[in-house]
């Protein structure tokens, strides 16, 4: 379970993983991998963009969580995060496509090999609470990617979609309870 910062912590953990595994080859410096919209003009070779947050019905909990004597916390909300992974190489035009394919292939390899994000790969509340989340490549057809890539006057860039989750966001609602102090049994005949 995580605090409201858990979404930012997942994003930071993904960037940390990619920076650790993709530098200096095929990307020369860690700062060239970051969080940004695919259409942001910048110097990133590889960008992650959180484009959707969906409640995860399969991971929804209905039971209250005990928070000590006399307190129950409402169950956390389980969500799945949708990320776009976009490559933008600064290479010359004649070698740009091959360079982007190499970068994308390595990013896919890293995310596949580390498909469960946990332990030293995590930051923030994920690391503090020893949480883990799955990373799964979406099998979206090309037409879906083109529809998602609907930014005004921006040519399509090589992009993949990943789902990361489940991510739990704690509820702030607490219910107080009283302990049962005595029992009363009566047998009627």
TrEMBL record:
It holds the Pfam family Pvc16_N. Residues 9-181 form the Pvc16 N-terminal domain. This is Pvc16 N-terminal domain-containing protein. It comes from Paenibacillus rigui. The lineage of its organism: Bacteria, Bacillati, Bacillota, Bacilli, Bacillales.
């Amino acid at each position: 379970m995580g605090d409201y910062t858990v979404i930012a912590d997942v994003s930071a953990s993904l960037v940390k993983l990619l920076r650790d595994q993709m530098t200096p080859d095929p990307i020369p410096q860690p700062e060239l991998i970051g969080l940004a919209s695919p259409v942001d003009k910048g110097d990133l070779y590889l960008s992650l963009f959180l484009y959707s947050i969906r409640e995860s019905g399969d991971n929804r909990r209905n039971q209250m969580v005990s928070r000590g004597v006399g307190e129950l916390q409402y169950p956390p909300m389980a969500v799945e995060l949708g990320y776009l992974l976009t490559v933008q190489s600064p290479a010359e035009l004649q070698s740009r496509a091959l360079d982007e394919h190499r970068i994308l292939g390595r990013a896919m390899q890293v995310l596949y090999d580390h498909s469960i994000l946990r332990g030293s790969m995590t930051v923030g509340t994920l690391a503090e609470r020893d949480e883990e989340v799955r990373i799964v490549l979406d099998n979206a057809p090309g037409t879906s990617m083109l529809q998602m890539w609907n930014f005004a006057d921006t040519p399509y860039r090589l992009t993949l979609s990943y789902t990361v989750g489940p991510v739990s966001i704690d509820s702030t609602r607490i219910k107080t309870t009283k302990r049962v102090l005595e029992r009363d049994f009566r047998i009627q005949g």
